Amino acid sequence: MVKRITKITIALSIGGLFLWLAFRNVRLKEVWSYAKHMNFGWLVPFALAAFCSHIFRGLRWGLLIEHEKKDVDRVTLVSGVLVGYLMNIVGPRFGEVARPMYVAKREDLKTSKLIGTIVLERIVDVMVMIILMAFVSVYVIADLSLLEQIFGAETIRFLTDQSNFVTYVWTLFFLALAISAVYLFYKFADWLATKSKVIKRWMIKANKVLVMFKDGVLSAKEVEDWWLFLGYTVMIWLCYTLMTYIPFWMFNMQEVYHLDLLDALVITVVSAIGIAIPSPGGIGTYHYFVKQTLLVLFAVPAVTGIAYATITHASMVVFVACITPIVLFVDKLRSTKAGKAIM
């Protein structure tokens, strides 16, 4: 309990810090005045793109667990994805546990194994993000001074300065040291298990969880249709890009600042980095990175940028909060009808 409260407190502090950075030197009255004149009709295609991204993510996830159970209900998979996003708003990474727990309970599967598939999903998404970041950096930004303005001069200098070679070595050393410490602790606990029945029972349970977790990660080799998996991945990121592009039309930014789909991809990649920072639902971090990207790369005024970031983020939160109970109700209703049909 204390650990969870500590995590939430740290996450809220990070979110609060980035919110302050995002709204610093921006008058809220100007943001509100700007937002009142937006075209709200574009919220419909925005919500549609968001919902499609959840559907494709659920379908892709199903490919990772179909070797465990072929007939996992697709509505249940999408419901699990939405539950995960909703819980991420409550606290960072809460959704990564809530999603597999929900589906495991509904489909009579092992939660730990499904958590392994979530890890695999994250690995795939990080790889895609790295590829997109390379594209953005080389073909679109290609200017370290711009990167410094977005991410901070110290960060870029650390990543590019060759004099930091010693720092990299020390980082690898401490990483190896941490891995060794975990391994030694595991061996020590394994030895204690021979002396205590209580510890032995805990070790048996821990080993079962680790095996199921490993099997979940290794489920990648069980995917029968990798082309379909890659297709779903492309569609997920296309939907994310559309969720960035469609709001341009809310504020007429595609005409005033000549922003196009490629620019939306740039903002999507940078904002994904912000969302990856552990703040509740990307609050603060998303706003800051989006505002900075629009300001530095596309000369969009800070007021417009923060209004854009606030509206898109709030729309996503409201959409998830509204659609999740509906989809959960549909999932429960369908399973109830299926149960009656069997009887």
Helical coverage, percent range? over 70%
Shape: globular
Biggest β-sheet strands, sense, barrel: none
Radius of gyration: 23 Å
The SS-based structural class is mainly alpha
Return the string of H and E elements. HHHHHHHHHHHHHHH
Give the DSSP E fraction (strand runs of 2 or more residues): under 5%
As for the number of domains, it is 1
Task: Give the overall average pLDDT.
Answer: 79
Distance between the termini: 42 Å
Write the layout of secondary structure elements.
Layout: H1 2-23, H2 28-36, H3 43-65, H4 74-90, H5 95-107, H6 111-141, H7 144-151, H8 153-160, H9 165-193, H10 197-217, H11 226-250, H12 253-256, H13 261-276, H14 285-298, H15 302-342
Helix pairs in contact: 1-14, 2-15, 3-4, 3-11, 4-5, 4-15, 5-6, 6-10, 6-13, 7-8, 7-14, 9-10, 11-13, 13-14, 14-15
Write a concise synopsis of the structure shown.
With 343 residues, this protein is mainly α.
Report on this model:
It is a single chain. This protein is mainly α and 343 residues long. The chain has one domain. It has 15 helices and no strands. It has helices at residues 2-23, 28-36, 43-65, 74-90, 95-107, 111-141, 144-151, 153-160, 165-193, 197-217, 226-250, 253-256, 261-276, 285-298, 302-342. α3 crosses α4 (74-90), α4 (74-90) crosses α15 and α13 (261-276) packs antiparallel against α14. The chain is globular. The mean pLDDT is 79.
